Amino acid sequence: MSTTTLDLAPAAGRSSQGVRRSAMEVATSIALALIGAAAIWDSSRLGAGWGAEGPQSGYFPFWIGLILAGTSLASLVPVLRARGAAAEAMFVTWPQLRLVMSVLIPTVFYVAAIPLSGIYLASAALVAYFMTRLGEFTWRSALPAAAATALVAFVTFEVWFLVGLPKGPIEELLGF
Amino acid sequence: MEEIGLLMQGFAVALQPGNMLLMLVGVVLGVLIGVLPGLGGANGIAILLPLTFAMPPVSAVIMLSCIYWGALFGGAITSILFNIPGEPWSVATTFDGYPMAQQGRAGEALTAAFTSSFFGAFVAVVMITFVAPIVAGFALRFGPPEFFAVMFLSFACFVGMAKGSPLKTLAAMMLGFLLAAVGMDTVTGQLRMTFGSEEMIRGFDFLVAVIGLFGISEILCSIEEGLHFRGQKAKIDLKVVLRTWAELPRHWFLAIRSAVIGCWMGITPAGATPASFMSYGVARRMSKDPAGFGQGRIEGVVAPETAAHAAGTSALLPMLTLGVPGSPTAAVLLGGLIMWGLQPGPMLFVEQKEFVWGLVASMYLGNVAGLLVVLVAVPWFAAILRVPFPIIAALILTVCAIGAYTVSNAEFDIVLMLIFGIVGYVMKKLDYPLAPLVLALVLGDRTEEAFRQSLLVSNGDLGIFFHNWLSGGIMAAGLALLLWPALAWARGALAGGPRAQAA
User: Fold this and answer.
1) Averaged pLDDT of chain B
2) In chain B, what are the domain boundaries?
3) What ipTM was estimated for this complex?
4) Which of A 96-155 lie inside 8 A of B, CB atoms?
5) Under a CB-based contact definition with an 8 Å cutoff, are residues A39 and A64 in contact?
C-alpha cells in the first residue's frame, strides 16, 4: 500500500487500514503446511511403515502430517479466488493492532522476566504497568495494588496450597 | 432400579459437609470464571486442576464440575447485561437477552436464563443417570477397533457439523494430533518430532495449550474492542423472580423441546454451540411472531439457554462412559481423571462406582446451588466487569501464567502458553475452530494407541475396522459425516454453476 492512497483516504477510512485477512490466511496455511511437512519428514526418518512390533513410530504422524499439509493448502483455494469485499477484508486494523500490542508486548516481557525475577515480582510489575499505562491510575494507587497482588498470590500458593512457584532473588533474600 | 440405589449412595457422598463446601466454592468460582473475559469453563478448570491433586478424586471432580456449572450460568450474565457472550454457546442468548436488558427487563431476562439453564441441566442429568449405565455396559464389550471407530466418529462429527470451513476444521484437528504425538512414543520409546530440543521431549501438555488457546487469546481478542465494557444495570429482586417464574410455565413445551435438542446435540462433540443456535432457530420458526425475535422476547432467552446447558451437561455422558469427551471442558475434566489415576471409559462404572455416582449426584446438587448463587448474587458478579479492564487483564494474565507453570512445574510451559495464546488469537480470527484441536490433543495418544492395537491384531489390514457390524456401523456413520461437506459442496456446485462454487 503506497503512501499516496493513504493520503487520499478520507479520515474515517483510515481506521479500516491494517493487515489484510487474505495475507494472514496465506501465512497461516503455509505455516500449517510446513508443520505438516516437518511431521512427514520426521516420520519418514523414524520409519512410517510396518516394523517388527507392528506399525512403526512414524506411521500415524506421517498420515496426519500429510492430511494437515493437504487441507491447509486446499483451504488456500477460496482465499486466492476471492474477489471484491471478501478480498479486501481486514484481519486487524492498525488501531486495533496497537491495542493488541499494548497488551502483548508487556506480556512477552513478563514471561521473559519470570525465570529471572520470580513470578511474584514480575506479576506485581505487570499489574502496576497495566494500571498506570493502560488505565489512568496514578502510581500511588497502582503500587499498593501490585504489592497486594503479589502478596495474595504468595499466601494462596506457597502457604495455603503448598505449591511452589518460581522465585527470584528477593524471595531468597527473605529466606524462602 | 439399580441406578436409584447407586444414585442415593452418590448423594450420601456428595452431601458430606466437606464436599458441600467444595460445591459452593466451585459454583462461585465458576460464575466468576464465566463472567471474566479470558477465563472460561475449559481454561478455568485447567488452571485449577493442579491444585486438586492432593484431594480425593471424588471431591476434586465435584469441585471442578461445579466450576463448569457455574461457568455455564455465568456466561448468561455477560451475554444479557454486556452483550458479550462469555462462552461460544451464549452467543444465541445475546440476541434477545441484551435487547431485554436495554428495555430495562434485565431481571426478567436473567431469571428466565438461569431458570431455563437449570431446567436444561436437570433434564440432561436425569438422562445421564439412566442412559450412562446402559452405554457403559454396552461399551464394556468394545475392543480397540470399536474404540477407534468411536473416536473416528466423534472427530468426523466436527467436520460434518462444522459451521465454517470443513478444511479448516480438519487442519485444526490434525494440528492437535501432531502436537499430541510430539515427545516419547509410548510403544517403541522413540522420540518423535522433538527436532533435538530437550524441552520438547515432555511433549505438549494439553492443559498448557488450553490455558493459552482459550485464555491469552481471549484477552487479545477482547482488547481489540477497546478498554471499556459498557453494560446494563442488573436489578434482580424476589418480586421479579417470582413474576418471571409465574410466566415461565407457559413456555413448557419450548423448554422441553430445547432440552431434547440440547441432550441430543450434547452427546455428539461440538454440540453445545450448534444446540443453542438450533434451539433458537426452531423456536423462532415455530413461533406465532417470528419477527419479534431479536427484539427482546423471553422465548429467545429460554430456548438457547435450556439447550446450551442441557448440551453442556450431556457432554459428560460420552466422557464418563466411553472416555471420549463431548466438549473442551469435558476434555479437561477427562485429563483430570487421568491425572487422578482413574481410567476413563466403561470400566469406571464397574470399578469406581463411588466416584461416578458421587459425580452424578453432585450434578443434581451443583445445579441447585448454582441457581441459588446466581439469583442471589447477580449484581455482585456483574460489578466485576465494572473493574477497569487493565486490572482484570493483568490479573488474568498472572493467573494464566501461574496455572501454566503449576501443570508440571516448568517455566518453559509459560513460554508455550504465550505461544499458544498468539496462535489461538490468529486461529480464532481466521475462523479455525479451537475445540477439535484441543480434543485431538487430548485424545491423540489414545486414538493412535487404539489404531495401532487394531492394526496389530489384523496384521496391518485396515479391514479390521469393518470386521463386525458394530465398529463397521460406527465407522460408516463417521465416513458419512466426514464426506457430508464434500457432498453438499458438490451438489451446490452442480446446481448453482460456477457462481455458487466461488462463494
Assistant:
1) 84
2) 2-489
3) 0.88
4) 96, 99-100, 102-104, 107-108, 110-111, 114-115, 119, 123, 126-127, 129-131, 133-135, 137, 145, 149, 153
5) yes
